[in-house]
Design a protein that fits this description.
Distance between the termini of chain A: 23 Å
Strand content of chain A: 15-25%
Strand order of the largest sheet of chain A: 13-10-12-11-15-16-14-17
Shape of chain B: globular
Oligomer: heterodimer
Largest interface: A-B, 87 and 92 residues
Number of helices of chain B: 17
Strand content of chain B: 15-25%
Number of helices of chain A: 13
Structural class of chain A: alpha+beta
Structural class of chain B: alpha+beta
Radius of gyration of chain B: 23 Å
Number of strands of chain A: 17
Strand order of the largest sheet of chain B: 15-12-14-13-17-18-16
Largest sheet of chain B: 7 strands, antiparallel
Shape of chain A: globular
Chain lengths: 382, 483
């Protein structure tokens, strides 16, 4: 089903709720393989028809995007005004990923270091729930504490509470120039120490990333502003003091594109997102090395994506992931991309039973009274 | 209500010396920073640990007695106003910094720790950005409840962007951990939903905060203008140039005069507006762009510019700004402060409307505000001893909020709804929006015992999911109707 207006989407939810039909909203479908494997939904709600940038308030640095709006297209529009949405996850083939999909999955990219993830740039939301109730939370101003922050609650909820119809976001100015300081090392400890020095330095970094593959790695710090290159040179000094070979990259778009694409798997491969802390980075790199996985990570945040190549036998992939989890415990290791057999054989969410999950189930029960919103896909089988 | 029966149990948990029931002593807790609302709680308890908080909340839940958590009591929306005959849980004794983990840029604190103590604990190389003007007294627990902002949030964000983990006692006494030192833990962002929930979803007992490296350089200046229109154009031009200053703060003439009288920093009393601009970050970048800010001010008719040459002068500029509320005592015996937000591009229009309202009501309104993010703080001055003046001031205050909402703004940018602005909620939100809020509230606190009577415009009860109807304690007491 492909509604051409928000009203039609609301009606679709109301009917699905009333008839007890399981409904899954989708944008471009670039992340449909995430979460627990579920049966095909009764209603596949394709939101690609809701694809308008409803508002771009240049002077106020805000915008309203319908859920089906391709994020890349919106970014191009913002860029014409010298602005950006500071949210840069990998957008999939043809940059097709939509605003609704990116927010519903809580995906993010290197800019997360400075600007946060979707939860940090969203300032308002329009949703519809399974009883057909259409509601808004937040507003259109960048500072607002009126009412509960349901925009954050729906961000990353995988469509299990209702369907996102539109998001209101805060924008940031594009930097007049960009430059990157890059360091290289073949020792995980030295690489992580250099990244830590950068993350702790009194410098204004837009992103501090690491990459690791086949026994060698790099650390990247991106700077913006009129003096981006000067700042990057200062970054190189910090890296050199930390004992790694370092250089400045002024034309740096491709190295950051590689960091973003490193968050997604090749066909039949897998990606495990590890939520840890900065100081654990050496352990994450070593565990990845042993598992034959490549890594991209936000060094200042302790977030890493471990990319495993396809294995002939899915059971082997499952074992490798279980091994990583055991080695990196208690850090949650969420399986994002992976063959369905693998996602069926283990809990992709890696979330133990406990009071937190009980509370999540209570939230689910209140927001999705009919229990039809993408059931089973989420943590704890929600 | 059975609060008397509860007192003994609570005294057994926290010790008699930490329970207040004396009528005179209870008066201390009747109000928070918003003094025109007051209510006497049945008892005040000052627990000494998270376990004690949990036991107290569990006891309240069993007895069906509502409870309100309170930090420093400096809130400006009545969020910590006690429930008459309920239990007030004052978290002042939970004031320990539990861990400073600079390797991971995290600090773990108890809720009673003051905001400034966090930056002090990690300085000078790191700092905690949210900086409400009350930061030397206000508590982190209160900041979490209100999602506090401050002068530097245009660039750095709000409390919600810096809390990575919470330990929360839910209204039934269950202890849950939301988030942690890590980001992106699996599951719903209940942390994001909790921050700013004004104490209605539970009581925070531990908070994990993200701290960030201090800026390499800070450049602060204040420019004076004939009026707020000129200063407003400066803000527009600065933002249009792609600059993101650490802070852009504006004060109008009445505010300048009051601040000057209070602090004597040497501001010209005839200036129509003062604009404080602070650039921070890379020294190279500050150096490259500071002159640009000065030029923008000059191009828009600045009558004087004062650049802070050292930390002492910078501190003076901020003293003048942060003293603005307190200084208003020199202008009028009382004032209402509003916290409305507008899209920044509508600044001139809304300030014009406020000036018209001043004439219409014959009352003075001083304006001091976070200009970068459009967060106004009109101070409506009145003399309560004059017949009907307080009522007129309150009406004027409401009409300013109406003006903010009419241009697509918000009722509150950082002070919270509390009891103060709850009656205005239906002007900003439709009924289904409020019903969606209530769904969250009911998931966390189906019995409505955590800080009832705040945020939502009218008392609402939660239907059971699923199960038969049972009478609610508030309903039995005739305090609320079932929706």
């Amino acid at each position: 089903m492909r509604p051409s207006s928000a009203d039609e989407a609301v009606e679709a939810l109301r009917v699905a709720g009333a008839e007890g039909r399981r409904l899954r909203a989708r944008g471009a479908g670039t992340k449909l393989g995430w979460g627990r494997p579920t049966e095909e939904p009764d209603v596949d709600l394709d939101l690609s028809g809701l694809d308008g940038v409803l508002e771009h308030n240049e002077g106020d640095l805000t915008a309203v995007l319908e859920a089906g709006t391709p994020l890349g297209r919106a970014q191009a529009q913002f860029a014409e005004a010298g602005q950006m949405l500071a949210l840069d996850p990998p957008l999939g083939p043809d940059d097709a990923a939509t605003a609704g999909g990116v927010f519903a999955t809580g995906d993010s990219g290197p800019l997360r270091h400075r600007y946060g993830s979707g939860r940090d740039v969203i300032i308002g939301i329009g949703v519809v729930m399974s009883d057909g109730m259409r509601a808004r939370a937040g507003g259109k101003v960048i500072k607002n504490v009126a009412g509960y922050d349901l925009a954050k609650l729906f961000t990353g909820s995988f469509g299990t509470l209702g369907v996102i119809l539109d998001v209101v976001v805060r924008l940031h100015p594009l930097d007049p120039a960009l430059a990157t300081a890059r360091g290289r090392a073949d020792d995980p400890g030295r690489l992580a120490a250099a990244a830590s020095r950068l993350a702790h330095a009194r410098m204004e970094t837009m992103a501090v990333d690491v990459g690791w593959s086949g026994g060698e790695g790099h650390v990247l710090a991106r700077f913006g502003g009129q003096t981006a290159a000067d700042q990057a040179r200062a970054g190189v000094e910090v890296l050199s003091e930390a004992g790694v070979d370092a250089d400045v990259i002024e034309d740096d778009a491709s190295v950051w594109e590689a960091q973003r694409s490193g968050q997604r798997a090749d066909e039949d491969g897998a990606v495990v997102r590890v939520s840890s802390v900065q100081a654990e980075l050496p352990r994450v790199l070593r565990a990845a090395e042993r598992a034959g996985a490549a890594v991209v990570g936000r060094a200042g945040l302790g977030l890493s994506w471990l990319r495993l190549n396809a294995r002939p036998d899915p059971a082997e992939m499952t074992d490798a992931i279980e091994g990583l989890r055991a080695e990196l415990a208690p850090a949650p290791c969420v399986v994002q991309d992976a063959p369905a057999e693998v996602r069926a054989a283990l809990d992709p969410w890696h979330e133990p039973e406990g009071p937190g999950l009980v509370l999540m189930r209570r939230v689910k029960a209140r927001f999705d009274p009919a229990g039809v919103c993408n059931p089973g896909v989420y943590a704890g089988g929600i | 209500m059975h609060v008397e029966a509860l007192v003994e149990e609570i005294a057994g948990i926290s010790g008699e010396q930490h329970v207040v029931t004396d009528r005179d002593a209870l008066r201390t807790y009747e109000s928070d920073g918003l003094m025109h609302f007051s209510a006497t709680p049945g008892a005040v308890v000052l627990p000494g640990s998270a376990e004690e908080v949990q036991a107290i909340v569990r006891a309240c839940h069993r007895a069906g007695v509502p409870f309100v958590a309170r930090g420093a009591g400096s809130g400006l929306s009545g969020g910590a106003l006690p429930v008459e005959d309920g239990v007030l849980i004052a978290l002042t004794r939970l004031n320990r910094i539990l861990e400073v983990d600079l390797d991971n840029q995290r600090v773990v604190v108890e809720p009673g720790v003051t905001n400034i103590a966090v930056s002090n604990a990690v300085g000078p190389d790191h700092f905690y950005p949210p900086d409400p003007s009350s930061q030397i007294v206000c508590s982190i627990g209160g900041n979490v409840a209100e999602n506090s902002g401050g002068a530097h949030c245009f660039k750095y964000g709000f409390t919600t962007n810096y809390v990575t983990g919470l330990e929360v006692v839910l209204a039934d006494g269950e202890l849950v951990h939301l988030g942690g030192k890590e980001v992106d833990r699996p599951g719903y962002d209940l942390l994001g939903a909790f921050v700013g929930s004004e104490g209605t979803l539970g009581v925070t007992t531990k908070i994990t905060l993200r701290v960030i490296p201090s800026p390499e350089d800070v450049r602060t200046m204040v420019a004076f203008f004939e009026g707020t229109d000129d200063a407003g154009k400066v803000v527009t031009d600065i933002v249009a140039s792609g600059l993101v200053p650490g802070a852009i703060e504006m004060a109008d003439q009445l505010c300048i005069q009051a601040s000057e009288a209070a602090t004597g920093v040497g501001y010209p009393k005839d200036a129509g507006a003062a604009l404080t601009v602070e650039l921070d970050g890379s020294a190279a970048e500050c150096e490259a762009r500071f002159d640009e800010v000065v030029r923008i001010c000059e191009d828009n008719g600045a009558t004087g510019i004062r650049v802070a040459e050292d930390d002492t002068e910078r501190a003076l500029i901020w003293k003048a700004r942060k003293a603005a509320f307190a200084a208003m005592g020199r202008v009028a015996p009382s004032y209402f402060v509003q916290d409305g937000v507008i899209p920044r591009t509508r600044l001139s229009e809304v300030l014009g409307q406020i000036a018209e309202l001043e004439s219409e009501y014959g009352l003075q309104v001083a304006n001091v505000f976070h200009a970068g993010d459009g967060n106004l703080h009109p101070l409506i001055c009145y003399d309560g001893s004059r017949d009907g003046e307080a009522e007129r001031a309150e009406e004027l205050s409401s009409r300013i909020l109406d003006a903010c909402l009419a241009v697509g703004g918000s009722l509150t940018g950082e002070h919270g709804i509390g009891v103060d602005k709850k009656k205005h909620m239906p002007k900003m939100f439709q009924e289904p929006d409020l019903a969606a809020f209530q769904r969250l509230r009911c998931a966390f606190d189906p019995d409505g015992l955590a800080n009832p009577g705040k945020v939502m415009p009218t008392p609402r009860l939660c239907g059971e999911v699923p199960g038969p109807y049972r009478q609610h304690p508030l309903e039995a007491a005739g305090l609320a109707d079932r929706f």
